[in-house]
Amino acid sequence: MTYAEAVNVLFTQLPMFQRQGPAAYKVNLDGTRAVLELLGHPERRLEVVHVAGTNGKGSVCHRVAAALQEAGYRVGLFTSPHLKDFRERIRVNGVPIPEQAVVDFVARYRTHWAEPSFFELTFGMALQHFADCAVDVAVLETGMGGRLDSTNVFPRPLVTAITNVGWDHQQFLGQTIRAIAAEKAGIIKDGRPVVVGRMRPEALSVVHEHALRQAAEVYDAPPESGPTRVEAENAATARAVCRVLNREPGWHLPEEAIARGFANYRELTGQRGRMEWLAPTDSGARVLADCAHNLDGLTALAAELATIPHRALHVVYGTVADKDLEPIWPVLPQGRYHWCAADIPRAFPAPALAAAAQERGVAGTAYPTVADAVKAACAAAVEGDLVLITGSIFTVAEALPAERFTPGQ
């Protein structure tokens, strides 16, 4: 079996939310527990930091992992989804899981697993890899929500964190901010500290209620300054996690290690697609890619754009068909839009997206692929303009150059 064949098994033979949407969602942890039982419970050999939130949780995880690496620890990092290569999800000290390890896992277990989802099995693969690599700690990003997320199987995490609570996945997490907050707060564990990022007051009250019931000490992330508001908030939450972890017996994260890790986290851990500057166009226009896809994320992105000097804005935008776009139209930045659809079944067809936008006074042109839209936007931009690629992780993934991903050996 080749690596491509192994990944094809994972992508095509398992229920996958990225591809199928709601049909792949599970409402309990039975599948995850079955996978861990099959693997001999690798989770029992791991110490973890567990992070949830509507936006920013991946960036917080990458920063925490980088700081731990700089402090001399061997660190597993589990994030989702990936952008260019499946192995981005599973890293040890920034190095993606080897291709052969993926092949061996699929070849060994494919005749033994029952009906796990893609996420459940991928998470099991990550934990097994981390245990086999004898990591000192694993930093885990929740996939969706928290209470019923596959990552929520550790009764005694070193520390948990909730970055923020906003509007996303309401069909699964609830129709109010308080309901969504309750799902996120499901990762809080008995007597274990929880770090809380900046969030709406009604969400914060729910998180504090859950923490009180669990006798979990709450640490609010203090405000920080930074190049952008989002960067500052993510850094503040990650720094609070590191400092809380520093209070745990046997852990030592010097401030200088935290500073080095935060300064170089993209290089240390390989994060991509979040406020990532790509190569400029032939005319000299700058190109920015960001995976903002929900109301809070796009609102924050619009605020960040206001701090970036540019003349005209050219937006490459694609989203998924099950996304509620009504709240999003008012927060989209003003510019010339290049509508597109990523190559996934869930994609919102570009012509339908363009028509819906036209009804709301947002001008633009539909293109058959992300590549076509990027090419058109870059061709239209001149020096001083800004090209923005956003709307969904899938859109950004197709737009990113593959050569920027350098797998470890």
What does this structure look like?
This protein is an alpha/beta fold. It has 2 domains: 3-269, UDP-N-acetylmuramoyl-L-alanine:D-glutamate ligase (3-Layer(aba) Sandwich); 276-404, Mur ligase, C-terminal domain (Protein-Tyrosine Phosphatase, Chain A, Alpha-Beta Complex), CATH 3.90.190.20. Helix content is 39%, strand content 13%. The protein contains 16 helices and 14 strands. The protein has helices at residues 3-12, 17-20, 30-38, 57-70, 99-109, 118-132, 170-173, 177-184, 201-213, 229-246, 255-263, 265-269, 295-305, 350-359, 370-380, 393-399; strands at residues 48-52, 75-78, 90-92, 95-96, 137-141, 159-162, 194-196, 218-220, 276-278, 286-289, 313-317, 336-339, 364-366, 386-390. It has an 8-stranded mixed sheet, sandwiched between helices. Strands 9-10-14-11-12-13 form a 6-stranded mixed sheet, with helices on both faces. Strand 9 and strand 10 (286-289) form a beta hairpin. Helix 3 packs parallel to helix 6 (118-132), helix 4 (57-70) crosses helix 11 (255-263) and helix 8 packs parallel to helix 9. The two termini are 19 Å apart. Residues 404-409 have low confidence and may be disordered.
Blueprint (SSEs and pairs):
Layout: H1 3-12, H2 17-20, H3 30-38, E1 48-52, H4 57-70, E2 75-78, E3 90-92, E4 95-96, H5 99-109, H6 118-132, E5 137-141, E6 159-162, H7 170-173, H8 177-184, E7 194-196, H9 201-213, E8 218-220, H10 229-246, H11 255-263, H12 265-269, E9 276-278, E10 286-289, H13 295-305, E11 313-317, E12 336-339, H14 350-359, E13 364-366, H15 370-380, E14 386-390, H16 393-399
Parallel strand pairs: 1-5, 1-6, 2-5, 6-7, 7-8, 10-14, 11-12, 11-14, 12-13
Antiparallel strand pairs: 2-3, 3-4, 9-10
